[in-house]
Design brief:
Elements lengths: L12 E5 L3 H10 L1 H4 L3 E6 L7 E6 L5 H12 L7 E4 L5 H5 L3 E5 L4 H6 L2 E3 L6 H9 L2
Parallel strand pairs: 4-5, 5-6
Antiparallel strand pairs: 1-3, 2-3
Length: 135
């Protein structure tokens, strides 16, 4: 009944789905005010390739903040952190990772920001990166 419940324990995430890029733009324009107070992430929609998914969460509920939390808890530096992603909402991970890896089947913009593009999931990309970087 209220967007203010996001992050209160009652609602943790609001997920919106669009069927095409025009609809995505319309949704983002409509929720512009929400974007000032909450974290809004836009990603590709694997079930609707022409559309997007839009996630609205508490401002500190981002992948970047999660990585920073784990780094602090474990005493791990940014240079000791490998960030792996496949969608645009994974870009914040790259901001706090020393090595940035994108999956081959991932978003083109994310791949452009990666240090290396590793094989896709269906080509055992995670096994590849673990074998190469985590010995």
């Amino acid at each position: 009944d209220s967007i203010d419940k996001v992050g209160s324990g009652q609602i943790t995430t609001v997920s919106l789905h669009s069927y095409n890029k025009e609809q995505t733009k319309k949704i983002l324009k409509t929720i512009k005010r929400v974007n000032e107070h909450y974290h809004v992430a836009v990603g590709s929609h694997w079930q609707i390739p022409s559309g997007s998914f839009i996630l609205i969460t508490h401002p500190k509920a981002s992948k970047k903040d999660a990585i920073l939390y784990v780094q602090a808890k474990l005493g791990v530096s940014q240079n000791e952190t490998i960030g792996v992603g496949d969608m645009p909402n994974d870009l914040p991970i790259f901001e706090v990772s020393g090595l940035k890896l994108a999956m081959e089947n991932g978003d083109e913009d994310l791949k452009a920001h990666a240090d290396e593009v590793v094989p896709s999931i269906d080509k055992d990309g995670v096994a590849y990166l673990l074998d190469k970087y985590c010995k």
